[in-house]
Amino acid sequence: MNEDFLAKLRKHRLLIADARLQMLSLFHSRNGGLTSADIEENIARPINRVTIYRNLQVFCKKGILHCVPTPDSSVVYALIR
């Protein structure tokens, strides 16, 4: 599975970083979307909150994730499969 994540990061010309690999792994292991709080709570090794938000923005911009606004004005992120 890790090779798929590495290939995805390379395809989008993104730096391969542990935080990015952890986040992709978490999204892949879940069906449905995750909030930034879900990521922070369920990540294997702690990641700085700012790093989580920056990576979410980069993943959305590169077409790896999409963000879905919810009725309560929060955002859920989901892997584009």
How would you portray this structure in words?
With 81 residues, this protein is α+β, with helices and mostly antiparallel strands. Helices cover 53% and strands 12% of the residues. It contains four helices and two strands, in the order ααααββ. Helix 1 crosses helix 2 (18-29). The mean pLDDT is 92.
Write the layout of secondary structure elements.
Layout: H1 2-11, H2 18-29, H3 36-42, H4 49-62, E1 65-69, E2 75-79
Antiparallel strand pairs: 1-2
Summarize the model shown.
This protein is α+β, with helices and mostly antiparallel strands. The protein contains four helices and two strands; from the N terminus they run ααααββ. α1 crosses α2.
Features:
81 residues, alpha+beta, two-stranded antiparallel ribbon, 4 helices
Largest beta-sheet characterization: 2 strands, antiparallel
Order of helices and strands: HHHHEE
Radius of gyration: 12 Å
E-strand count: 2
Average per-residue pLDDT, rounded, comes to 92
Helix content: 40-55%
Number of helices: 4
Q: What is the distance, rounded to the nearest whole angstrom, between the alpha carbons of the first and last residues?
A: 14 Å
Strand percentage: 5-15%
Shape: globular
Lateral arrangement of strands in the main beta sheet: 1-2
